[in-house]
Each structure stands twice: as structure tokens, then as C-alpha cells.
Amino acid sequence: MMTLILYTIFMIPICLMNLPMIFQYSNLLILIWLIFSGCWGFFNKISYFMAVDNISFNLILLVLLISSLMVISMMNYNWMPSFLFINLSLNMCLLIIFMSMNFMYMYISFEFVLIPLVILILGWGYQPERLLSGLYLLFYTMLVSLPLLILLVYMYMNLGSLFFDMMKFHSEFFLIHFTLMIVFMVKMPMYFVHFWLPKAHVQAPVSGSMILAGLMLKIGGYGLIRSSFLYEYMFMKYSYIWFSISLLGSIYISIICLMQSDMKCLIAYSSVSHMGLVIMGLITMSNLGLMGSYYLMLAHGFCSSGMFYMANIFYSRTNSRSFYINKGFLTYLPSSCMFWFMFCCFNMSCPPSLNFISELMILTSMVSFWYSSMYFFIFISFFCACFSYYLFSFSQHGIYSSLYSFSNVTCYEYLCMFIHLVPLIFSPMMISSFV
After folding, report:
1. Which residues of the chain have pLDDT under 50?
2. Which of 104, 327, 232 is CA-nearest to residue 224?
3. What is the pLDDT of residue 245?
4. What is the structure's pLDDT at 430?
5. Buried-exposed string 298-335: b where 16+ CB fall within 10 A, e elsewhere
6. What is the pLDDT of residue 432?
7. pLDDT tens-digit profile of 137-185?
8. What is the pLDDT of residue 336?
């Protein structure tokens, strides 16, 4: 896997020479190479501290595909060489996170990814409030990261190694469990520690929203999966705490979505609700829960990223994200209505999407963990359908405030929307190859 890291490093001249199409083709080339390299087994393509297994393989493909779509979304923006370099830096950090076999290497990349992300928000954001959103993101991460560094030093002193396949932790001390869990819960984010996400999403450019929704939230889920293999007993002993918070938090956040007047705010809060389902699936420590959470992370990466891109299409034409201005697009932007309808349907987990299969697996694992959680899941699913319908109906129906027709959608925009949709539709057909 050092091949992939070196390939990414040697893409730096492409960024500096301002060649966005070559950058995009290089990402897609390495993606195709990975698909046909056969590295989705138990630890394949092993180098000194990197490897790929069936957990990280699809997430690496997601990184390469979303970063290519980010280039499409920022074609008309200024400072393109700087953006390509920031994109490449994010790529490098995320690839090291998903390929690292050592907890310390993963932790360093986990924290370093914050720097290019804050630069992206501050440099290409929209309003002056982006300074405050970058501050929220910085302090939420710093607050939970330092205790984890101290814990890693403590674990190395006791275990003698920080390689995932050689670590086995047997402590029952709740503070250790809390320190190891909360750092990933903030990244997902879990209810109670989610306030940075709507701030960052609203102030970020479209590419920042795409990488936040498509990739940054998946780091938390990936970290939970890796850490759950280190100390299963403590993970199961205190699981009811995180399960309860996520169960109630998903319902509360779904209701909050119905109160939003900002399109990006609603999509950002819906991400918190879906990540609550991911946490509940992982906490059950069952095979169906793990598979369902993993598939929901992949499905959410494409669906939420696509919805943010669609919201930006409206924003670029009306200079507003408000529902009170962005309405009536069924008449004035009819060519995008079908894509918007499919994204909203998949966001509420309608078949035959990958979201539907993953939520079905999570529901089964939740019922096996606590039977009465089925009733809470009904409310979560109902409110999720409500805010998805609310998002579609308010944006597509009604009387538009202007008399100008925006019926032209560029080929780039069609391409980006289509690539977001294809994996959601065809992944259930190939789901057996993921297992």
C-alpha cells in the first residue's frame, strides 16, 4: 500500500500546474487499479505499517471517488491550484487513516486532517461566520484528542505495541472506555457533541460539505469498528449508555430537521440522525449490526454528498439557501427534479437503495439488543421520511420568487449527480462481494 501513498505524493506537481482534469483522472486511475487488485481479504497488500482489509477497502474507494467529485464541484472557483493541493492533503490523511495498522499513525493522521479541512472552510467559505465554525471544529477536536494521546501512551506502556493485530485490552475502567469512545463519537458526530457539524457544513464551500458528509463522518465509524476489536468486553459492558443517547438523539434531531429554514442545515442535521443509527448498529456487537452500520456509512457518504451538491446547484443560481426563496424549482429547474426526488427517497431509505438494506440490518440488530427499541426505530424512520418529504416538497413546489428560468444544468452537474446515484442503486446487487 506504500504504492498508493507514493502515487498520491507524486500528484503534487499536477496540483501546482493547475491541471484539475489530470488530477481527477489520476484519482480514477488508482481507483480502478484498486478494484482489480483483489485487496479485500483479511489484511492484504501489507507494507511496513499499512494494509487493506474488507473494512477499509470500500472506504478507500469512497475517498478517491468523492475527491474526484470535489474537483468537478469546484471547477468555477478561484485559486484552483491551492484547492487541488488541499484536496490532495485531505486525500493523503484519509488514506493513511484507513490503511494504517498502527493506532499511533492513525491518531496522527486523524488529527492532522483537521488542518486542511479548516483551511478549506476559511479559504473558500461563504460568510464571515466561517471563522466561528472553524473554531468550533478545532476546539471540539482538541478537547477530546489530548486524552486519547495520553491513553495511547498508557496502552503502549502496558501492551508493548500499538499495532491493531497485536493489541488486546482487558481493563474495565470506565474512564478508559469513555476516552477511547468519545473521540470517535465527536467525529461521527453523536447527539450532544454534534453542534460543530451544522456550523461547519453551512459555512463550508460545496467541496467542504461533500468531504465532511462523505468522508469525515466515516472516520468516527471506522475508528469505532477498529477499537471494538481491541476490548470487546468493556465495549459490551457500557454499550447501553451510547445506545440510549443515540436512540433518543436520532428522534430529537429528526424533529429539529423539521424546524429548519436553511437547506444545508437540514441536510447536516439529517446526517447526525443517520450517524445515530450507525452508532446503534455498531454498539450491538452483532454481525448484522456491523454490516448494516458499515453499509449505511457507505450509502450515507454518497447520498448526503449528493444532496449537498444539489443544494449548491440551487445556491449558485439564487444566492440563497433559504426554503422561502428556493421553491418552485419543478417549473424553473425541471431537469434536476428527478435527481432531487431520488436523493430524497434514498435519504429516507426507500428500496432498492443501499440505505434500505443497511437500515433493515440495523433494525434487526437493535431488536436483538433491546426488543423495545423497535418502537423508537418506527419514530426515527417516520420523522426521517417527514423531513425528506419536507425538503423535496418545499424546494420543488410552490411559486418561485423570480420570473427568470434556470432550466439549464451543465453536463458537469449532471455527471456529478449521476455518479452519486449509481453506487446507491447498484451496490445492493453487488452486496455479496462486499462481505
Report:
1. 432-435
2. 232
3. 92
4. 58
5. bbbbbbbbbbbbbbbbbbebbeebebeebbbbbebbee
6. 47
7. 888 888 888 899 999 998 888 888 888 878 877 777 888 889 888 999 9
8. 83
